[in-house]
Amino acid sequence: MQRLRSLQRLGTVYGLMEEMHSLQARMAAAEVGEVETVIRSESSILQVAGMHEREAMRDDDVLGRYAMAAREEVAIRKSRQLSPILDRRREVRELAQVRYRDSRLWSERMKTLIDAELERREIAEERSTQAASDDRFLAQRRGRKIKRAGMESMNLS
């Protein structure tokens, strides 16, 4: 009984660790997604700025051309600054995913141990019940034999 309780407590701890690592993995994935979204946004801005810069050149709009060239430069710099951040966040995400997978495996192992212990206890209880039933049957049988032997001795007298 004590072993089962200990295993169940450990199973609860492993389950909580799995949940915590799952949450960390989801958060790390979301952080990667945020940076990827910003980089895509900057890429879109870069394309739009390039189109507007070409239009400004075509229309001889020097101020518009400089404004779009500056916007392109800002988008390029932001993307360059975000690239190492994205790489770090991807590394963190991968580590979090590995940690979660490991945690899940340990949690599954604990569930298997708990199930095995429950099954072992159930089998032991069934054996104990069967042994008690067999003992009662044998006791009744012995009692009947003694009773018959006593009656036979009375009949012989």
What does this entry show, briefly?
The protein is mainly alpha-helical.
Question: What does this protein structure show overall?
Answer:
The chain has 157 residues and is an all-alpha fold. It is 97% helix and 0% strand. It has helices spanning 2-58, 62-156. The radius of gyration is 38 Å and the shape is rod-shaped.
Mean pLDDT: 90
Shape: rod-shaped
The helix/strand series, from N terminus to C terminus, equals HH
Unreliable stretches (pLDDT < 50, length at least 5) are none
Which structural class do you get from the secondary structure elements? mainly alpha
Main sheet: strands, sense, barrel: none
In percent, how much strand structure appears in the residues? under 5%
Backbone CA Rg: 38 Å
Distance between the ends: 56 Å
Helical percent range?
A: over 70%
Count the E strands: 0
What is the tally of helical segments? 2
Top keywords for this entry?
single chain; 157 residues; mainly alpha; 2 helices; 97% helix; 0% strand; rod-shaped
What's the arrangement of secondary structure elements?
Layout: H1 2-58, H2 62-156
